[in-house]
Amino acid sequence: MPASRSPAQPPTPSPAPPPAAAPREPGAVPVADYADSSPRPVPAPSVTVSTPAKPSAEPTDAPRLSVERLNAYFGASCAVHNVSVLLPDRFVTAIIGPSGCGKSTLLRCLNRMHETLPLARVEGQVLLDGQDIYGRAVNVTAVRQHVGMVFQRPTPFPTMSIRDNVAAALLTAGDRPSRARTDEIVERALRRTALWEEVKDRLRDSAVGLSGGQQQRLCIARALAVEPEVLLLDEPTASLDPISTQKVEELVYELRRDMTVVIVTHNMQQAARVSDRTAFMLAGELVEVAPTTTLFTTPRDSRTEAYITGRFG
Fold first, then answer.
1. For residues 263 and 103, what is the distance between their CA atoms, to the nearest angstrom?
2. How many Cβ atoms are within 10 Å of 159's Cβ, its own excluded?
């Protein structure tokens, strides 16, 4: 308990008034049109935004992925409507929004996983380094090597060992590495996911013997084994405990050094912790995309404000 103040001491001055809301960052241009585009400070935001991971949340280089007028369908139903967005290199972009808004469908369109579903189709363009991945001459397998994906629930191959689960990603490569080189790749991928020290003495054991968090990091290691340019994460911590969630978030934080990361999450606190930019989707439309600090403090669309302050969702 602090010591009592002597009567001789001057009275404690009144606390200074809180600082004014920070001005909106330049360049935070939303994709959709807005009825009111003036910055609106959010009253009592429900998300604590951490210090940005980069000096600037505005990309300076050409985008790694560019989505242009994308529509995704399930039969006659349009799940993603006219989405255009730039996904810059070595940035983490989080996609948030209520359930059923099209977040995961948009993510699956970025490496042509959407078209594997019955009656699913895509219109528009997804450009990877300027090349449309939906072009007729494009090899789908090659696309998925460059744009890796990790799903919500861990999906280790149950009949394979820990080592072979990671190495399985190399089986689709054109030139399969030697066994010694494969072991090097497996170790590097496991080290990048902070899993090596936990499994190095049981690489021949079944992957299903790992915990849920370890299995998810194993799946990320499998995706990293082929050195993708882009990593897509579809709610990767939704089924994990808090400690495992923290490890995956730390991994995402590190991966931005080498690649583009796009993460779908229902957890706005998570988006604030790990992302440089955040996109908000609603009813299949991309409402707004901006630097994370901007979107959570001075969103430009009233629908974004309503969602992040908990008025719906």
1. 9
2. 10
Residue 164 has what pLDDT?
A: 96
Contacts of 3 (CB under 8 A, 6+ apart): none
pLDDT the model gives residue 119: 93
- Model confidence pLDDT, tens digit, residues 12-37: 444 445 444 444 443 333 333 333 43
**95: its two tokens:** 């996609």
Burial of 35 (0-12, 13-18, 19+ CB in 10 A): exposed
Mean of all residue pLDDT scores within the chain: 84
Quote the tokens at residue 71.
């529509």
Q: Which tokens belong to 300?
A: 């430009």
> Helix/strand/coil (H, E, C) string of the chain?
CCCCCCCCCCCCCCCCCCCCCCCCCCCCCCCCCCCCCCCCCCCCCCCCCCCCCCCCCCCCCCEEEEEEEEEEEECCEEEEEEEEEEEECCCEEEEECCCCCCHHHHHHHCCCCHHHCCCEEEEEEEEECCEECCCCCCCHHHHHHHEEEECCCCCCCCCCEHHHHHHHHHHHCCCCCCHHHHHHHHHHHHHHCCCHHHHCCCCCCEHHHCCHHHHHHHHHHHHHCCCCCEEEEECCCCCCCHHHHHHHHHHHHHHCCCCEEEEECCCHHHHHHHCCEEEEEECCEEEEEEEHHHHHHCCCCHHHHHHHCCCCC
Query: Per-residue pLDDT tens for 171-212?
Result: 876 678 889 999 999 999 999 999 999 999 999 999 999 999
Each residue of 122-159: pLDDT tens digit? 999 999 999 999 998 899 989 999 999 999 999 999 99
Ordered strands of the 77-88 beta sheet: 77-88, 63-74, 120-128, 131-132
Using alpha carbons, list the distances in angstroms from residue 242 to 88, 191, 249, 269. Answer: 29, 21, 10, 13
**Whether residue 70 has pLDDT greater than 80:** yes
